[in-house]
Design a protein that fits this description.
Blueprint: E1 4-6, E2 21-24, E3 27-33, H1 48-65, E4 73-80, H2 86-94, E5 103-108, E6 118-125
């Protein structure tokens, strides 16, 4: 099976040796997204709600570049630095999955790239 590298200029460019997403067949594997402004490269992290929405906006851009939407997402992984912020992150995240939300796990970690508070990856299938 062949793989197609997906890139969106509306999301931050990778900060390492990885692709924003890889499509193989009818499945899109999205790398973890953080709250980087794709134009300025600056972090969007005034508060955890704003940061989570920025992550989701970046995910949306990469999903669209691959021909997918949030409705196609079947699995997400959320990495957070403070499980005490889970409720706030969950409220913002939930706005993107109004019905039939994907499977998911949420993991607290000690550190994330660029010291962000939240990183989310996903898998989408058509």
């Amino acid at each position: 099976m062949s793989k197609e590298i997906i890139f969106s200029s509306d999301a931050p460019a990778p900060i390492g040796p990885y692709s924003q997403a890889v499509k193989t067949g009818n499945t899109l594997y999205l790398s973890g997204q953080i709250a980087l402004d794709p134009v300025t490269g600056e972090l969007i992290n005034e508060n955890i709600t704003e940061e989570t929405h920025a992550v989701m906006k970046n995910m949306d851009a990469v999903l669209r570049a691959g021909g997918f939407t949030f409705a196609d997402v079947v699995k997400c992984t959320i990495f957070i630095r403070d499980m005490g912020q889970f409720g706030t992150i969950n409220d913002a995240y939930g706005q993107y999955f109004k019905s039939n939300p994907p499977a998911r796990e949420t993991v607290e970690v000690s550190k994330l790239p660029k010291n962000v508070n939240v990183e989310i990856s996903c898998i989408a299938v058509k």
